[in-house]
Specification:
Elements: H1 16-20, E1 36-42, E2 48-54, H2 56-60, E3 64-69, H3 70-76, E4 81-82, E5 86-87, E6 89-90, E7 96-97, E8 103-109, H4 112-119, E9 123-128, H5 135-140, E10 154-155, E11 167-175, H6 178-184, E12 187-195, E13 207-212, E14 218-222, H7 227-238, E15 245-249, H8 269-276, E16 281-284, H9 287-293, E17 299-308, E18 314-326, H10 332-342, E19 351-360, H11 374-392, H12 396-403, H13 423-433, E20 446-458, E21 463-471, E22 477-480, H14 490-502, E23 509-512, H15 530-557, E24 564-567, E25 570-573, E26 580-582, H16 583-590, E27 597-605, E28 625-637, E29 643-653, H17 660-679, E30 709-715, H18 737-749, H19 760-771
Parallel strand pairs: 1-16, 14-15, 18-19, 22-23, 29-30
Antiparallel strand pairs: 1-8, 2-7, 2-9, 3-8, 4-6, 5-10, 11-19, 12-17, 13-14, 13-16, 17-18, 20-28, 21-22, 21-27, 24-25, 25-26, 28-29
């Protein structure tokens, strides 16, 4: 049993009062003198050449300060392109548009209303090109390329766009002999599963403020999950030092889920800020622009082939994965890596083969979305696991427990030993606690079913974090980090870690907002890595302060440093307790004129791993493995096709729960989001690539009324390098939900849906086919 005073306790959130009383500051709350308002002119075609843009009428409108089109900006900056890992995207389209909604010009005006009026006055002449709206079209239409100069784009090592194609990244992985494995199998299963594209729908719409300063520097105020990532993208594209780009995050970000990365949908603010010169301009997207102008989740097609013995042992598995990345790569290639490495599932499979492609289409851009490609493949492999279990007459729990990875197992994809594996415990707990209620036989059209699913995911590598801590003269503590509070409770966790190490009251701690000019490097608040990496860095910085305090106290108390201990803000002789001094007194005696103690910590974890030469990746996934399992009880109305989720049990291996109530909140929010992705949400495109449901009237997300009973189970299997053993949680809870619901649906009415979302019309259609 641990003896921690702050860690492992459900301490109230550090931001609770600001959010409850409405004083929390978001990007739209930032006020700057002389602020202008920007609005983006967007393409009305999904694939076309730009013949001419006429901005003259907009420029003459009273109140308009500046108008900039793509050609002007491109000529002044030598046709700049941005992107990570593939630089393929212009700030403003100047020669060609590749999706409906792509920015082609920007207006700045003294009011939002004038800016909106001005963009309607901009006229654009196009020459249309045949679009490729879906994955299959893009793979066939290689004579109509979305990016004709794909091989000329700057690309990071380890990523492989295929020239003269619409494939921006391709991965192949092989281990063992899959064909031989299939021949030795008693049964072979082949299934195709599709996952729809969905929107992040954060409560706070995307927004940013930008200003070019007289000294040549660029200042941005954003609500972004990756301030350092934005800085690098802009600096690289404009060929300027990163030190000349400053990104200051708003105190809080109103939801991200991967959608607020790398200034998504807002890079057009750079050209208009450049055109204005020296005055700040703000662009705040409305809800319709959220749908058409920022990134979304990748739609996918996953073909899975699995060979098993009659006792349920998996011998061989091959997977073909196709992701629809839209008009530009963005983080699609990185998402593909996670999908490709995760598509075998958390199972011991001796023979595997993976072929995965990230495909351009003339649709809005797809990028990171909570889970980074793993929800798409988990939907496939966990649905197929139940198909296999049903055919063999084996309990779904039993077949999973028989095949899941265990401590020390070397994965067939990453070729690394897994560590801190709590998957078996997760599965067992959600199975034991699911109450199998009896059905009222008088209600003939209501059928209940139970489903189970599990998942795993690795965090990103290489990766690391740095943190500074300032211990003030009065004993107060300031934490400087560039991880971002996006509603997940990270600042509370970091404050708990600092309070634990410094034994200082929790209320004495502040966590400062990310600012690339002040706070140290952190790559991005994504991949469920913030607690592991930033938490380790904060802990190391706190230990650095303690070490400095002990050195000062040893001189004043005349005690060897090794004999000192710290508790409740006081340093004392841990052997005899005869000498003691508070931190405040120590600072006053050491620095009578006042001073601060500065601590620093840097955590970086990366191990090479034994990667076969034909796996063309720059680096393998990190050795931080997150596991989870869920069981679901559903009720299906066979007359209407409506599914009601009655109960969800969600178990997550968190390593160590720093703040249990925060983990429970993450679980409940993540499961509800996953339910929405499973049952309701889908971006609907017409044949021209236009999104048809661009409002919350037509795009349904779950509300509080759709919240079922969700029970969070925290499994603690400590990671040897995690802070106090902690791992990540944010993404784990959204991974198995869809498959668990699909499996429960089959248990209830005997029909299998393989294409998300699971809608009433699909259920009714499947029931009709079943009767035939």
């Amino acid at each position: 049993m641990d003896t921690y005073s702050k860690v492992g306790k459900s301490i109230k959130r550090i931001d609770i009062y600001e959010k409850v009383f409405g004083t929390a500051k978001y990007v739209d709350d930032i006020k700057i003198e002389g602020l202008l308002y920007g609005k983006i002119k967007r393409s009305s075609y999904s694939h076309a050449r730009i013949i001419h843009i006429d901005t003259s009428r907009a420029e003459k409108l009273k109140g308009v300060i500046a108008v900039v089109a793509g050609k002007e900006f491109a000529e002044n900056f030598d046709d700049p392109l941005f992107g990570n890992p593939l630089s393929d995207q212009p700030f403003l389209a100047s020669k060609k548009v590749r999706y409906i909604g792509e920015p082609i010009a920007v207006v700045a005006a003294v009011s939002q209303e004038i800016a909106e009026e001005a963009i309607e006055l901009i006229k654009v002449d196009y020459e249309q090109i045949t679009p490729s709206i879906n994955i299959k079209d893009s793979l066939r239409n290689e004579t109509t390329l979305i990016h004709e100069n794909l091989n000329n784009y700057k690309c990071l090592p380890g990523f492989h766009p295929i020239n003269k194609s619409n494939i921006c990244h391709h991965i192949s992985i092989e281990n063992g002999n899959t064909e031989q494995g299939f021949q030795e199998s008693d049964l072979v299963f082949e299934d195709v599963f599709t996952h729809q594209s969905t929107q992040h729908v954060p409560i706070e719409c995307h927004g940013a403020i930008a200003q070019f300063n007289p000294n040549g520097n660029i200042q941005l105020w954003t609500s972004d999950q990756a301030p350092y990532g934005v800085r690098k993208l802009i600096a690289d594209a404009l060929k300027m030092p990163e030190s000349k780009v400053r990104i200051t995050n708003a105190t809080y970000v109103g939801g991200g889920f991967g959608g607020k990365l790398n200034l998504s949908g807002l890079m057009a603010i750079i050209p208009i800020a450049w055109k204005i010169r020296y005055r700040p301009v703000k662009i705040l997207l409305n809800r319709e622009e959220e749908f058409i102008g920022v990134t979304r989740r990748h739609g996918s097609i996953v073909k899975l082939k699995t060979g098993v013995k009659n006792d349920g042992t998996i011998l061989s598995r091959s997977a073909e994965v196709l992701l629809d990345t839209g008009a530009y790569a963005d983080l699609g290639p990185t998402v593909l890596i996670k999908a490709a490495f995760g598509c075998i599932g958390p199972y011991k499979v001796p023979n595997i083969k993976v072929d995965a492609s990230c495909v351009y289409t003339n649709k809005s851009i797809a990028s990171a979305y909570r889970g980074y490609g793993v929800p798409q493949v988990c939907w496939a492999y966990e649905s197929q696991m139940d198909i296999i279990a049903n055919k063999l007459g084996i309990d779904p729990l039993e077949i999973r427990l028989k095949n899941i990875v265990e401590e020390g197992y070397i994965t067939p994809t990453e070729k690394q030993k897994v560590h801190a594996v709590g998957l078996g415990e997760c599965l067992t707990k959600v199975s034991e606690k699911l109450s199998r209620k009896k059905i009222d036989k008088n209600i003939k059209n209501k059928k209940r079913g139970f489903g189970i699913a599990c998942s795993y995911k690795t965090s990103k590598t290489p990766s690391g974090a740095s943190a500074f801590i300032k211990l003030n003269f009065d004993g107060g503590v300031d934490i400087f980090v560039s991880s971002v509070e996006i509603g997940q409770g990270l600042n509370t966790v970091l404050a708990q870690i600092a309070a634990e190490e410094l034994t200082t009251p929790f209320d004495n701690i502040r966590v400062l907002s990310a600012d690339t000019e002040i706070t140290p490097f952190f790559p991005a608040t994504t991949a469920s890595r913030s607690t592991f990496f930033a938490g380790n860095a904060v802990r190391m910085a706190a230990k650095d302060i303690v070490e400095q305090l002990f050195k000062l106290a040893s001189e004043i108390l005349n005690i060897k440093k090794e004999a000192l201990a710290l508790k409740n803000g006081a340093i004392f002789n841990k052997d005899s307790f005869d000498k003691k001094i508070t931190i405040t007194d120590l600072l006053e005696q050491t620095y009578p004129g006042g001073n601060s103690i500065l601590g620093r910590g840097t955590y970086y974890h990366y191990k090479e791993g034994n990667i076969p030469s034909h796996i063309k990746l720059e680096s393998p996934p990190l050795l931080v493995w997150m596991y989870g399992a869920q069981s679901v009880e559903v009720e299906v109305d066979t007359e209407t096709g409506r599914i009601t989720i009655l109960q969800v049990l969600a178990a997550s291996d968190v390593g160590k729960s720093i703040n249990p109530i925060s983990c429970e909140g993450q679980t409940e929010g993540g499961v509800l989001q996953a339910i929405g992705n499973t049952l309701y949400e889908e971006l609907i495109y017409d044949e021209k690539g236009k999104i048809m449901n661009t409002s919350l009237l037509d795009y349904k997300i779950p509300s509080a009324l759709d919240m079922p009973e969700i029970n969070s189970i925290l499994v603690e299997n400590p990671h040897k390098e995690g802070p106090y053993g902690a791992k990540g949680l944010g993404e784990t809870v959204v991974l198995p939900t869809a498959a668990a619901i699909g499996n429960a649906l089959y248990d209830a009415i005997g029909v299998r849906i393989k294409d998300l979302p699971i809608t009433p019309d699909k259920i009714l259609r499947a029931l009709k086919e079943k009767k035939k």
